[in-house]
TrEMBL record:
Species: Rhizobium lusitanum
GO molecular function: DNA binding
One Pfam family recorded for the sequence: HxlR
Residue ranges of domain HTH hxlR-type in the record: 12-109
Protein name per the record: Transcriptional regulator
Keywords assigned: DNA-binding, Transcription, Transcription regulation
Presence of the UniProt keyword DNA-binding in the record: yes
Keyword Transcription tagged: yes
InterPro entries with a match to the protein in the record: HTH_HxlR (IPR002577), WH-like_DNA-bd_sf (IPR036388), WH_DNA-bd_sf (IPR036390)
PROSITE patterns cross-referenced by the UniProt entry: HTH_HXLR
Amino acid sequence: MAKRVSHKDSLCGVARPLDAIGDWWSLLIVRDAFDGLRRFGEFQKSLGLAKNILSARLRNLVAHGILDTVPASDGSPYQEYVLTQKGLGLFPLLVALRQWGEDFFFQPDEPHVMLVDRKTNQPVRRLELRAQDGRMLMAEDTVVVAPPESGSR
């Protein structure tokens, strides 16, 4: 098995976060945290993940400042996992991934869970990438620019 390479020194904003969220379990844990799960057992029940793997992923998310541990809200001796500001910042990424998944991994009439506005109970509007002047942007409308004298992404 190939050794995992760290991207912590990369100049690329896509590569660098992969040390924290670059496996599917981590993103599913974050998804579940957005859905209100807070306890180890809740994550394990939701994901069906082995305790040692779940424990390692939770430690990594805490180490990267995406989750924090707090005393259990019911006063028990356990701890709970809560999203930090950094973790909350992943919400648009999860929405984009969800919308992409709905577009390409479900048949048009196939039922699936939906993200809805809590206030109106209506589906969330599609994410859009816009230029500073408000124009819609697609991939062909953008370019990645390296910092001066870096020569790489």
